[in-house]
Amino acid sequence: MGAVKSKRMPRAVREQQMLDAAVRTFGQRGYMAASMDEIAELAGVSKPLVYLYLNSKEDLFTACIRREAAALTEAVRAGVHPDLPADRQLWEGLRAFFTHTARNPDGWAVLHLQARTHGEPFAAEFTAMREEIAALVTQLILAAAREAHRDPDLPEREVAGLAEALVGAAESLAAWANATPGVTARQAAATLMNFAWAGLGDLMAGRPWSPPEEPERAQAG
Amino acid sequence: MGAVKSKRMPRAVREQQMLDAAVRTFGQRGYMAASMDEIAELAGVSKPLVYLYLNSKEDLFTACIRREAAALTEAVRAGVHPDLPADRQLWEGLRAFFTHTARNPDGWAVLHLQARTHGEPFAAEFTAMREEIAALVTQLILAAAREAHRDPDLPEREVAGLAEALVGAAESLAAWANATPGVTARQAAATLMNFAWAGLGDLMAGRPWSPPEEPERAQAG
Amino acid sequence: MGAVKSKRMPRAVREQQMLDAAVRTFGQRGYMAASMDEIAELAGVSKPLVYLYLNSKEDLFTACIRREAAALTEAVRAGVHPDLPADRQLWEGLRAFFTHTARNPDGWAVLHLQARTHGEPFAAEFTAMREEIAALVTQLILAAAREAHRDPDLPEREVAGLAEALVGAAESLAAWANATPGVTARQAAATLMNFAWAGLGDLMAGRPWSPPEEPERAQAG
Amino acid sequence: MGAVKSKRMPRAVREQQMLDAAVRTFGQRGYMAASMDEIAELAGVSKPLVYLYLNSKEDLFTACIRREAAALTEAVRAGVHPDLPADRQLWEGLRAFFTHTARNPDGWAVLHLQARTHGEPFAAEFTAMREEIAALVTQLILAAAREAHRDPDLPEREVAGLAEALVGAAESLAAWANATPGVTARQAAATLMNFAWAGLGDLMAGRPWSPPEEPERAQAG
DNA sequence: CATGAATGAGAGTTCATTCAT
DNA sequence: CATGAATGAACTCTCATTCAT
């Protein structure tokens, strides 16, 4: 049922197998309902080996969070090109985000659902990642203000709130896109981009933000 | 510490005491870490009575989710007056939402953190509430379109995505507002209203949406 | 195999059954080798009940030590009549000691072998009992000195050493008497009394201490 | 921290290193709490080598007991000179005993605390040593009787009991001396010699046994 | 109804022990 | 020989759940 069983692998490889199994199990069952037995079996190893390499359920969970957080952050960062205008940067970042979460739903569940829900040590790991991304977004918002030749008199907390709202909307749309068949990462990104950049008011007034045409995948149906 | 112990109360009252205790315990400890012992003690009743009335931990948790979901939905619905213009309706709905979640943090934690995190049966309950609120928001968006004298060529799914984004942003800001000292429900609502209605683009261009003045609570300190 | 299984007993009774089983198991297997499973089975209850009543293996062990220490101390104290001369008091105390340890070998093993061997918390319990008995013996030694009309210029530490030696000899003889078939408590007491009171020197010189004749059991063969 | 690591040592040497580490670990942690990992690390060898040389934890423990028992027996035997009068022989033997146990506390803990406490196979090893020493003491008692020109009508079992008592008192005093700062081996031996030879009766009557003056170590500070 | 007594099932964790290299 | 990789079996402890009274 789990990975193909093969003996005597170097530690680093086994550890990744374990983390794979753990992310999947934590993501699907939840932190507390996931049992070390199940994780070990899915990883194709015995339980003592899991403990030998990763010490405890808490440490294993933390390792999962760290790995997934790093992967997600890296994916988003890789998508953003700092030379582009602010709206294009946001667009690229969102696309990377939705693509990554769609391809890695268990990892996303670990971060989004499990890490926050099970106490400080884990929530702190998640918060660290969230703040890193929120900082990115905040930079974007300020850059957009500069591009609009305005020194935004928005107080710092207001900007933080906006970033929070944007990240929350993205998180929510990621879950929605994963759960709704036929919604692509690109479409989710477009929806959010419209929402965030133009605002409902402009949208309703017929002034949507328009995504740049890309050669690789046609948008018009 | 728990409810005042008194004998022979009608079943409905006892049940509410149990749900109160359960919501508090689930909200603070989490679903799995909460023990039936603790809930029974906090409710001031014996454990077998909890089982007599609510059958099992799962059923008890489901009952909590249902009650809190109904209360939140009702609060939002009560805040919205269908005669107002769309943006005012949204504004009132958001205010009601942030006020309710701020006053009822354990209930909100049960919904936002616990219900989604512990498997299908519970997540479905949460999703039902979410969709009810999203439907409300969808109506608002369509109403806004009508007010703008435009038949929006936005496909149904696009509107659903916008509603999803708005709800997600609200959820995220509720947690942020609860966790950040000094942020009131009104401020959270204003931040989100700005973000949603005007959009980042307009905001950066210096065209924010402005909340209506209200007599009931002075803003200047 | 264990006690007759009967359900629904009052807590106090069940607790004693558990302690009985625990003393027997700890005494025979040793603290660490004894498993809670075995103790529970021998007590005729389920493991969770043991934990419900006695909290943990450590607490259970401590409870065993306390119970057995109290029983032994009480037995010795009950045997000693303060009105008798010092040598008779010592004689009675030793008889009580050997009788009790012979009738209760598992309890004695718990005290003598297990309590000292498994770390401070337990050793301290044992030491407390040991010091209580040593204090009794010390009083006896000083009383003997008074009876001999001498103010013993033995330093305090010397007296402590003598008490330690006497208690150690008694402990050793108790194990020996239990292990050697046909050695009665009375005989063990006589041997130790001779050794302690007369000393090897006097014994070899043909001047033994002679136990008082008792009606119940004839001494001469 | 452990032994200096160096390759290719003859088997006998490696084995002694392992036994050194094992005695130390068993003595300080106890048999069950001592882990083979810790012992191997302290010995500076790999775990499989420990198994190659010593087969199992049980065998390793048995080997420790045997080595320490032999060392202690040898030390006592070496201290006794058969030409001396009986009391002097006893005195020398006790001094050797207390000196050895004081210098080798871990080995003594293995014998005195661990060997007896963990089941028959080990207790038997300890008992064997104990009987060897007790036999030595028995000879001494009989020699003392001969010196007193008396054919003691003490039955064989009585003599065995006396030896047992003496050995037990010595064991107890060894632990006491090790645990009480400032008590030397010589003082412990003197206390026991007084107790055993003169008896409490003579001691209280002001007729102690007096240790011979020795040139080797000055007593006055 | 309310309660104390009781448990089946399973959780995380550790350890002595072995093999392939 | 030495080592890293690996495990079967056992342990302590917890919890949702149910009777008998």
Quick one: which chains have the greatest interface?
A-B, 55 and 55 residues
**Taking all residues together, what is the mean pLDDT of chain A?**
85
The topology string of helices and strands of chain A comes to HHHHHHHHH
Low-confidence stretches of chain A: 1-5, 215-221
- E-strand count of chain A: 0
Overview in brief:
Chain A has 221 residues and is mostly helical.
Explain this structure.
Chains A, B, C, D: InterPro entries: DesT_TetR_C (IPR054129), Homeodomain-like_sf (IPR009057), HTH-type_TetR-like_transc_reg (IPR050109), HTH_TetR (IPR001647), Tet_transcr_reg_TetR-rel_C_sf (IPR036271). Chains A, B, C, D: This is TetR/AcrR family transcriptional regulator. Chains A, B, C, D: Pfam families: TetR_C_46, TetR_N. Chains A, B, C, D: Residues 35-54 bind DNA. Four copies of one chain form a homotetramer. With 221 residues, the first copy, chain A, is mainly α. The first copy, chain A, has a domain at 63-204: Tetracycline Repressor, domain 2, CATH 1.10.357.10. Chain A has helices spanning 11-29, 36-43, 47-54, 57-79, 86-103, 105-117, 120-147, 156-179, 185-204. In chain A, α5 (86-103) crosses α9. Chain A is elongated, with a radius of gyration of 20 Å. Chains in contact: A-B, C-D. At the C-D interface, α6, α7, α8 and α9 of C face α6, α7, α8 and α9 of D. The structure holds a DNA duplex (21 and 21 nucleotides).
